[in-house]
Specification:
The protein has 179 residues and is an alpha+beta fold. The chain folds into two domains: 64 residues, Winged helix-like DNA-binding domain superfamily/Winged helix DNA-binding domain (Arc Repressor Mutant, subunit A); 85 residues, Lrp/AsnC effector binding domain/regulation of amino acid metabolism (RAM) domain (Alpha-Beta Plaits). It contains six helices and four strands, in the order H-H-H-E-H-E-E-H-E-H. A four-stranded antiparallel sheet has the order 2-3-1-4. Helix 1 runs antiparallel to helix 6 and helix 2 packs across helix 3.
Length: 179
Amino acid sequence: MGKPLKNVELKLISELMKNSRRSDRELARIIGVSQPTITRHRNRLEKTELIKEYTMIPDFIQLGYKLMCVTFVKLEEELGEEDITNLRKSVTEVEHQNPFASLIAVKGLGMQKDRMFITLYKDYSDYVRAMELTRQLPNINIKTMETFIVDLQGKGNYRILTMSQIARQIQSPEENPKP
């Protein structure tokens, strides 16, 4: 990790997470510093890749997605570096031929699983097809795979996907003491 973030940088990141379309001039007014200060800090955060990309979060339902799935996988054996490289290549090829919306795919630890991915699907048959393709990936042996399926149109959903909560927390770290 690089240099510790300055208070103005935390505020800038927080404000950009809430709305990355705002100009440096508007961000400067909100944060209470000059526009050149915002530009300098934004450039540094981009150069150090703390800001990885600028994006927006659409309404997935209006785009036709009905399901969000969190899938947990346990592999038979740990993958070496070459296996991981080959897996990434295979997944890229499968995704190119069968475009499913993947939000995240990571290695982790917990619940007797070692991989997790979050994906969006137009319907249940798309989900089933994606799981079949996942099981067919070359050079990996899946021991177990379990999925938590979310109906995006479900009335009991509280917060689908937003950066606002994280933005509020990082902007006011003194109000959120560490455990």
